[in-house]
Amino acid sequence: MTESEHRKRARTRLSNRRRGTMRKYIRGYFLAGILVTAPIGITFYIAWLLIRWVDAQVASLIPATYNPETYLPFAVPGLGLIVVFIALTFIGWATAGLIGRLWTRLTERALARMPIIRSVYGAVKQIIETILQQQSNAFRQVVLFEYPRRGSWALGFITGQTQGEVQNLTSDDVVNVFLPTTPNPTSGYLLFVPKKELVVLDMTVEEGIKMVVSGGIVTPPDRRPEAEKRLKRVAAADADTRTIPRENNAPDSTS
User: Fold this and answer.
1) Residues sharing a CB contact under 8 Å with residue 139, sequence separation 6 or more, in sequence order
2) Among 5, 66, 158, 197, which residue's Cβ finds the most Cβ atoms within 10 Å?
3) Domain 141-229 listed as CATH 2.30.30
4) What is the full DSSP assignment across 138-185?
């Protein structure tokens, strides 16, 4: 092989390496662009769909005389949200007075006499009041517990202290735990779990929901001190043996 052929092959190899490096850089920049723009774009798209849906529902209720879109050559995005906000604020102000409280009391009495409506209304009202109550402990703690068997772990959210007949029938101190499904956390199961069977996590509720929605792809970092990281609160799985050690290291009489 002549010297010119060696040089030609060397230039070819160098050119191929440069093209490979260039393709690698372009692919990396393209993926970085997706990571930056995709969350922002999807968020704005969902928000835009929500605004358009609310506007479409409210626009039909506004008389044409008072609808700004009647006089403008273009649609006003967000008009429905503004109208809903003003309407809810006015209703809240009206019900705060004597006449408003009287009207609310009469309405609730009328709904309480309807066989099916009263059950739906009572359940919805209780759920909304519990969620909006400032002192409520609903969805404020993320817990780890064994489900559906020993050695298999699930992520749940404490929704409150168990009360009533369920608690009175059990000897353990039981709490209400909501076990969400992946990737839709709005559906799930309500479990009554003994408090001693729960491992309370330091991650926030938002971080727990992200982990559930992503199917474990998004894992929050462990921000605990190094001493706590080295402390194992859960023992190794071993058939039906208790895997959550008692804090006082007392022997387990149920195993």
Assistant:
1) 131, 157, 158, 159, 178, 205
2) 158
3) yes
4) TT-EEEEEE-SSTT-EEEEEEEEE--THHHHH-SS-EEEEEEE-SS-T
What is the Cα gyration radius of the chain?
A: 29
| Structure tokens belonging to residue 48 | 């835009």
| pTM of the predicted protein model | 0.56
> Domain boundaries in the chain?
1-74, 79-132, 141-229
Phi-psi region of 12 (alpha: psi -120 to 50; beta: other; left: phi over 0): alpha
Taking the C-alpha atoms of residue 181 and residue 108, their distance in angstroms, rounded to an integer, is 34
What residue type is assigned to position 61 of the chain?
L
pLDDT, one tens digit for every residue, the chain (255 residues): 566 666 666 667 767 676 777 778 888 888 888 888 888 888 889 888 888 888 888 887 888 787 777 777 777 788 888 888 888 888 888 877 777 788 888 888 888 888 888 888 877 777 676 666 655 556 778 999 989 888 889 999 998 889 999 999 999 899 999 999 888 887 899 999 999 889 999 998 889 988 988 888 888 888 888 888 888 877 777 766 667 765 544 434 333
The single residue listed with the structure tokens 């000897």 is 171
End-to-end CA distance of the chain: 80
